[in-house]
Write a structure and sequence with these properties.
The structure holds two protein chains of two kinds. By secondary structure, chain A is mostly helical. Chain A has helices at residues 2-10, 18-34, and one strand at 14-16. Chain A starts with a helix and ends in a 20-residue tail after the last helix. Chain B starts with a strand and ends in a 7-residue tail after the last helix. In chain B, helix 1 (24-31) packs antiparallel against helix 3 and helix 5 (132-146) packs across helix 7. Classes of the chains: A mainly alpha, B alpha+beta. Chains A and B meet through helix 1, strand 1 and helix 2 of A and helix 3, strand 5, helix 5, helix 6 and helix 7 of B.
């Protein structure tokens, strides 16, 4: 057990099953693709308006 | 349901950690690990595990408590269900969550461990907190056993295999670990016996004969 605790002290404990990781990345990519693109409206960027000629 | 409790060593003392099913709001908080611990595998895996949990939730295939898990199995014996377990401690409130484990209950009532992550850089009183990963794993083995699951398994990688070898006291672990009920019990018993012996070593003697 000392060996295990030492291992935990010296290594990052962050494990993922490769298949679960792949599936999660695909879900993330799908979510990103589905999400509307709102970036242009963030950070105080003014909305572009069409100018109307008179 | 009473939370599962295990103990970790923090600043020279044994302190309790609660291990419970995450609710939706808690899964949202887990997702923010990626921002709080950028450029770490734990941060990345926490965010991806949360994504996966929300996806399963939209499909009606996640549970947020042991009662929900039992009820879902009662409704459908072959239900495939996902759940996220989180470890937290009152004495380490600043972190909210110390660790997470994303698991699945498969159609044949086995437990699959898909993600296991301990938040990097955990400290208490300026000293590292140790034993969280093993506490999480031993608690999962105990839970699987108490749910009557015959098998717990997971995929291992080059980085996780040494951890599984040490906690299961089996070598070599390659790309898959599979444990049955006798091993689940052995893991738990060995873990508890070790904790008791550590506790006895750190406890101050009350009587001097």
């Amino acid at each position: 057990m000392d060996d295990l605790l030492e291992y935990e002290r010296t290594h990052e404990i962050a494990f993922a099953s490769p298949r679960a990781l792949l599936e999660a990345r695909m879900i993330e990519a799908m979510d990103k693709a589905r999400r509307p693109h709102r970036r242009a409206h963030r950070n105080g960027v003014a909305h572009r308006r069409k100018t109307v000629g008179r | 349901m009473r939370p599962i409790i295990f103990h970790v060593e923090a600043a020279g003392e044994f302190r309790p950690v609660e291990f419970t099913f995450a609710s939706e709001s808690e899964v949202r908080r887990v997702r923010s690990w990626r921002k709080m611990t950028p450029a770490t595998d734990a941060g990345e895996f926490a965010a991806l595990a949360a994504k996966r949990w929300f996806y399963y939730t939209r499909e009606g295939a996640s549970v947020a408590s042991l009662d929900e898990l039992r009820a879902a199995i009662k409704r459908n014996e072959q239900a495939e269900l996902a759940f996220l377990m989180v470890a937290s401690a009152e004495w380490a409130k600043r972190y909210k969550f110390l660790a997470l484990a994303y698991c699945r209950r498969t159609w044949c009532h086995h437990l699959v461990l898909d993600f296991l992550a301990v938040r990097p850089g955990l400290r208490f009183s300026g000293k590292p907190i140790s034993g969280i990963g093993s506490g999480v794993f031993a608690s999962l083995a105990d839970m699987a056993d108490s749910l009557g699951m015959e098998t717990m398994w997971g995929e291992a990688t080059a980085s996780s295999a040494p951890f599984y070898e040490k906690i299961l006291r089996t070598r070599p672990i390659k790309d898959l670990f599979i444990i049955h009920r006798d091993t689940m019990r052995n893991v738990r018993e060995y873990y508890l016996a070790d904790q008791q012996s550590r506790l006895a070593k750190t406890a101050k003697p009350n009587h001097i004969s």
